[in-house]
Every structure is written in C-alpha cells, then in structure tokens.
Amino acid sequence: MAIKTIMVVGAGLMGAGISQVSAQAGYRVIMNDVKDELVDKGFNAIAKSLEGQVKKEKVTAADKDACLARITKSVSLDDAQRADFIIEAAFENFAVKKAIFEKLDSICPPELIFVSNTSSIPISSLATTVKRQDKFIGMHFFSPVPIMKLVEIIPGLKTSPETIKVTEELAASLKKETVRVKDVPGFLVNRINAAFRAEVFNCLLEGVATLEDIDKAVKLGLNHPMGPFELNDAVGIDIGLNVFRTLYEGYKDQKFRPPLVMEKMVQSGDLGKKTGKGWYDYTSGEKKPRKDLNL
Ligand SMILES: NC(=O)c1ccc[n+]([C@@H]2O[C@H](COP(=O)([O-])OP(=O)(O)OC[C@H]3O[C@@H](n4cnc5c(N)ncnc54)[C@H](O)[C@@H]3O)[C@@H](O)[C@H]2O)c1
Q1: Which residues form the catalytic set?
Q2: 9 alpha carbon to ligand 1 midpoint, in Å?
Q3: pLDDT > 90: what percent of the chain?
Q4: Ligand 1 centre from 206 Cα, in Å?
Q5: Could you tell which of 91, 97, 117, 233 is best to mutate to test the pocket of ligand 1, judged by most ligand atoms within 8 Å of the CB?
C-alpha cells in the first residue's frame, strides 16, 4: 500500500518535529493531540521552524505554505481511519500509550503499521497492546527532529521483515539515516551516551574540572556541538535522569546508576532551560554559570 497520509499522535516537541519532516517530505499529515490548543502549539512550532528555514533560504515561502497546508489538525483518534501509517509520540507513559494503541487497533485496517517513538518502553511490551504485533515497530527519532539525521529502527520480538522494510523506506523518504537496533534498554544511542555521561558526572564530582570547563573540553576536544551539561539543560535534566533509571533497571550495571547530583537537581525543581535554571542559569535570557549550587 502506498503511504500518502501519516498520522502523528502527540503534537509536543517530538510529534511536531515528526509532523514537520513528514509534511516536508510531501506526506499529508494528521497531527493529533488531546486538545485544540496543544495541536495549535505544535502547528505554530512547525510554522516558526519553517519560517527560520525560509530566512536561511533553505526553503521558499511557497514551499513553507504548501508544507503547512499538508498538515491537518486533529483531536480525535478516529481520524486515524484516514491514515496509511501511524507514528505515536505521546507522553512517555505505558498506560497512555496503551490506551492510544488499543483504540487505534480497534478502528484501523489490520494492514496499517503502528510505530512508537518511545525512548524507554520496550517495543515488545508496547506491541502486546495490539493484535497486529507483526506490524508494530519502534522508530526512535532524535531532537530536534528536523535537524538530527538519525532514526533508530527497533523491531520488537514479533515484528515482520515486511514491517521493518516499509518503516526503513519511510524513514529514508523523510531524509533520515537509519540503524537497526535490538529492543534493549536505551536502544543504542542512549546506552552509549549514558556510559559517556556517567564519566562526565564522575569527573564533575571528583573536581577534575569545573562544569563549564567539562562542557568546553567536550566541545573543543571531542568536537561535540554542545557540552554534556548544556545538552542536558536543553533536553531536560528529568528526561536525562529517566534514561539512567531505565538503563540501570534494565542492565543492573553500576555504570548506569543514576547520578545522585542529577537526582538532587530534579528534586530541587531545576530541570534545565524549561524551568529557567539547570546546570546553567537562563533567567536573564542568556546562559550564565551558576554560583549558587552546592554540588
Ligand atoms: N524529547 C526527546 O528528546 C525525545 C527523543 C526521542 C523520543 N522521545 C519520546 O517521544 C515521545 C514524546 O516526547 P516529547 O518530548 O515530544 O513529549 P511532550 O511532552 O513534548 O509531548 C507529548 C505530547 O503528547 C500529548 N499526548 C498525551 N496523551 C495523549 C493522547 N492520549 N493522545 C494524543 N496526544 C497525547 C501531550 O498532550 C503532549 O503534547 C515520548 O515517548 C518520548 O520518550 C523524546
């Protein structure tokens, strides 16, 4: 079946990004969330991102308008009846995702492929929420979706070769590179990155260098576009902590033990850019070092 219309469930950070790259690739997109204002927020984020691309002369104003016109707003999962492919990017919560997939399974034709963009819930356990376990697969996009080239393709225990093939082709049509990864905790990238970040925290707590100098060293010495603390602030310290928790629970390996200093930051309510303060202070509108933390 030719895929023409993709439904994206969840219009938050990831759902908006996935909707944007899908629409830019020429697909019609049904962008779904639970409330009009949340869909509008996702839609406005896409419009703003495209506007930025127009300013940089990466797309024309006409392309931007055509792209936005391919996106239909939705607050009802029943709209999935008009979709050829479903990508779920709702809250990272098994019960939330289960309710979504159960509903979709009951209304969508049996040949439709269901994708989850989960970061930490095993694909094989999410697949148990539907009858079509052979048509259930993980696509793990990275943030910001329009910029990050990689998508991890995660087949569950019962995903069929045909589902893997169609999903990899779809990712390629979104101009993404793919890697096929087993359904293991943290998948591939987050697992490797957590081991690296664990060492970053060891260095911080041993006083090997200041937080700012660790960021500087990783950027200039390893050629990372952002330092680990800046990145953690951008993604959310709570999200980063959850990655450690998932890996520690999954592997029982000490190297993934959630750093206590991250736990303390989350307990204090400083979660990064989204709360104004994290490893750095953003309250002035600029990134400033913090002097008030007893690390
Ligand atoms: N943030 C990241 O960097 C990142 C990277 C890869 C994967 N993910 C995964 O992507 C998913 C979404 O993450 P996010 O960062 O976009 O979260 P987010 O909180 O920005 O967005 C989630 C959206 O889902 C919506 N939602 C909740 N329940 C819903 C329902 N029943 N039906 C429709 N929409 C519903 C929420 O209203 C919200 O707008 C999660 O599974 C997360 O683990 C996140």
Answers
A1: 119, 140, 152, 190
A2: 9
A3: 98
A4: 35
A5: 91
Question: Is-above-0.90 flag for pTM?
Answer: yes
Domains of the chain: 5-180 (3.40.50.720), 189-281 (1.10.1040.10)
- Read off the pLDDT of residues 111-139 as tens digits, 9 standing for 90 and up: 999 999 999 999 999 999 999 999 999 99
101 touches 87 (CB < 8 A): no
Token output for 53: 């691309």
Strands 136-141, 150-155: pairing kind: antiparallel
DSSP H or E segment with residue 72: strand 71-74
From the CB of 89, is ligand 1 less than 6 Å away? yes
Nearest alpha carbon, ligand 1 atom 2: 143
On the question of pLDDT at 1 being above 80, the answer is: no
